[in-house]
Amino acid sequence: MNSSILKYIPLNSRDYLNKILSENKISLLIKKERRTKHGDFRVLKNGECQITINSNLNSYRFLITLIHEIAHYKVYKIYDKKVKPHGQEWKQIFKYMMFPLLNPKIFPSDLISYVSNYIKNPKASTDTDFNLSLALRSYDFNKEKKYIFEINNGSKFKIYNGRAFILEEKLRKRYKCKEIVSGRTYLFNPNAEIELV
User: Fold this and answer.
1) What is the pLDDT of residue 195?
2) Second label for 8, Cα 20 to 30 Å away, from 54, 118, 167, 172?
3) pTM over 0.90
4) pLDDT classification of 71: cutoffs 50, 70, 90
5) How far apart are CA 73 and CA 53, in angstroms?
6) φ, ψ of residue 93 in degrees (nearest 5)
7) What is the pLDDT of residue 6?
């Protein structure tokens, strides 16, 4: 295993990941925080398979993200580009790879039920599962992040790219906001990271 990732993953997941990474030819890079993604998988022009993961993730989010991206690698090796990126093939492989990790020696007991629920029908990002995202947040290094569900109607905020909005109202599942410059309406998931202005 690439020794540089040891500090990013839970201690008791190391043997499992070492086995997976030693059996598969994957280049793994740790990147600075990217606001739009936790990690990614790509095939480089030279044919090498590369996974990148953000360095700012807590160890549990890092582990889930790493398995997510390794599942993409396995799908690519089996199906090439003939299936959807987060289709049934990816979901099955991701579930199969996550299942051995669902134990209290790896994930704290308060996370296991959320992770278990998420892998029943995993989505493109853990952030789409509000409960899992919130549970993982409690293990983040930076506790100062704000989420849109924590602010009141009429509050002004900015998102990662600097665009400013006003929160108008909470709908059934999302938050209706108006962009200040354009006046256009946008819908945000409850766990969208924001900065008050």
Assistant:
1) 87
2) 118
3) no
4) very high
5) 14
6) -65, -45
7) 83
Return the HEC string of 8-51: HCCHHHHHHHHHHHHHCCCEEEEECCCCCCCEEEEECCCCCEEE
Count CA atoms within 13 Å of residue 41 on its CB side: 21
Nearest-angstrom CA–CA distance, 52 and 76: 16
Report the alpha-carbon distance of residue 69 to residue 55 in Å, rounded: 15
180: domain CATH number? Answer: 2.30.30
Which pLDDT belongs to residue 74? 95
Q: Average pLDDT for residues 68-94, to the nearest whole number?
A: 94
- Same domain membership, residue 169 and residue 88: no
Query: Do 67 and 97 belong together in one domain?
Result: yes
Average pLDDT over residues 128-133: 89
Sorted by sequence, the CB contacts under 8 Å of residue 8 that are 6+ apart come out as 30, 53, 55, 57, 59, 62
Encoding tokens for residue 19? 């086995």
Please tell me whether residues 93 and 46 are part of one structural domain.
yes
Residue 34 has what pLDDT? 81
Q: Let me know the angle formed at the C-alpha of 16 by 47 and 41, rounded to the nearest 5 degrees.
A: 30
Do residues 32 and 105 share a domain?
yes
